[in-house]
Write a structure and sequence with these properties.
With 358 residues, this protein is an alpha/beta fold. It is built from 11 helices and 15 strands. Bound molecules: NADP nicotinamide-adenine-dinucleotide phosphate.
Length: 358
Amino acid sequence: MSKKKVAVIGATGIAGQHFLAALPNHPQFEIVALAASSRNAGKTYLDAIRNPSGMLGWWCEEPLDPRYAAMTVQNAAEFDATTVDLVFTAVESDAAKELEPLYAKTTPVVSTASAYRYFDDTPIFVPGVNNNHAELLKRQQAERGWKGFVTPVPNCTTTGLAMTLKPILDNFGIQGVIMTSMQAMSGAGRNGGVLGLDVLDNVIPYISGEEEKVQKETQKILGVLNGDSITPASFGVSATCTRVNVADGHTETVFVATEKPCSPEEVAKAMREFRGGLDGLYSTPDALIHVHDDPFRPQPRRDRDMGGGMTTVVGRLREEKVLGQNGIKYVLVSHNTKMGAAKGAILVAELLVRDGII
Ligand SMILES: NC(=O)c1ccc[n+]([C@@H]2O[C@H](COP(=O)([O-])OP(=O)(O)OC[C@H]3O[C@@H](n4cnc5c(N)ncnc54)[C@H](OP(=O)(O)O)[C@@H]3O)[C@@H](O)[C@H]2O)c1
């Protein structure tokens, strides 16, 4: 089977680079175009990621494929999406608002940006959690007159939360959720990201707009598809989002009031058995959720790369009855730039190809 031709827009940024790190040997997708802002248009990719000091700004542990290093970066605003079968976008929301509808007129777009997340005709995919929300894309195409579509992945802090809440919701019901995040520096991106001197030896107790995103997105992702619209989950989600001195991997403490009683053993079993209908896809990890029994895990440095950065790692499962009659609390680690961005978007694309939507 010939591979689908894909473009990565925002290829020079942190999330964009992770697409390049993940795709060199992908059996279904082949990168044929890279684009970024007009500042880098016309440069080779290698020159585009070189800092003014001369240092190469390649952030991934995987090596940069020499084929990509030599490609010419295109101006995202002028990129012709009809030249590819699929577009991955990894640009800030303002740029995405302008660019994504241009591409979607002709071509499917899987996005890491927030620009489209809150439209009623747009799903926010967490692969394995809400696969059936893909139905909404038909409405988006019909109402907007597009041949393609825009389908965003969630904010990287929402991903691990929604993934771990899904088996709890399905087995025990949920009445309310309180979450505190300790988010990695890479989550803030390269342009205008967190200054090293601000976060070194420090914790920043506020990330603008993040808490509202996590709350709204979690309810939409765990909501029910009724015909051609989603009824958001009715339980409340309250989040406190902080930035910590960790390079990659978001840590979250989660308190869940459940409808039915649940023991830590029952929740661990439900999480371990959660497969999400993703078996057989190239980027599906062996476990979507791994549950540690060791109370000193998960830790971002030791656990973020489990399953190639695609496994949400849980530990410290304990009963929690302060919020209601029944409940559970735990700690999770989720890789923000892998499952939470590029590789998560690639898994969404694999799912949509399997289901005949791309
Ligand atoms: N970092 C994460 O963990 C993470 C996780 C999930 C989702 N996301 C989302 O992914 C997106 C990218 O985030 P990031 O962290 O990768 O940011 P980043 O490192 O700052 O990279 C931004 C990218 O967007 C490009 N860009 C900026 N303005 C543009 C414009 N007007 N037209 C075209 N391209 C433009 C930049 O190109 P130049 O190099 O030419 O400026 C660069 O390639 C954001 O929407 C973010 O919310 C990020």
